[in-house]
Every structure is written in structure tokens, then in C-alpha cells.
Design a protein that fits this description.
- By secondary structure, the protein is mainly beta.
- Helices cover 11% and strands 43% of the residues.
- It is built from two helices and ten strands; from the N terminus they run E-E-E-H-E-E-E-E-E-E-H-E.
- The protein has a five-stranded antiparallel beta sheet with strand order 4-9-8-7-6, with no helix packed on it. Strands 1-2-5 form a three-stranded antiparallel beta sheet, with no helix packed on it.
- The longest helix is centred in the N-terminal third of the chain and has 6 residues.
- The protein is globular and about 35 Å long.
Length: 108
Amino acid sequence: MTTTGSCHCGAVRISLVAAPDDVNECNCSICHRLGVLWAYYAMSDVRIEGATVTYAWGEKTIDFHHCPTCGCTTHWSPRGERARLGINARLLAPEVLAAARVRHSDNR
């Protein structure tokens, strides 16, 4: 079953092979400020439509993608040889997010 989501204005759309079973609340300096909950997927299990702008920080191993119109953080993608990416689960329907277990990572 496909699960979909979008940024606030709808310019960036995300399709996932399935709803996430769990999501991760990271408390590192950027994730804390972004207020995201990450759902992790293999790159082949995600389709993202629409243009994004990116931001990289620290060791610059991942790019954070944002909608250039409304500013919503949509996902992060790896720079290099990583097989997964993180989708901002807050962009999914409320009932999809409510069904997922929330894990907490202490990355401060």
C-alpha cells in the first residue's frame, strides 16, 4: 500500500511503498530546530516529485532538502554510499503518523 505526503504548499510530493512502523525523533542541533520526525527508507522505496533546495552542515555527509516555496523540510539524502534516506514523517497524514511508534535518539 502506498503512503503519500507533501510539503505545506504541495509543491513537493512524497510517495512511500508503505507507512512507517516507527519514526525517529533526533535531538541533534539541526533536527531539534527543524522539529522533524524521521522515517527511514531504502532509496528505491521512495519517490519524490518537485524541486527542493538543500542545506548541509557539519561534516556534510547528508543534504537536508526543503521546499523552496513554503520552506518545509521534506527529507534528507546521503552524500556518498548510503543506502537509505530520511523522510520527514510530519508531512504524512496525521493518522499515519499516529500509528507509528516514536523512538528517541540522543545525538547532542
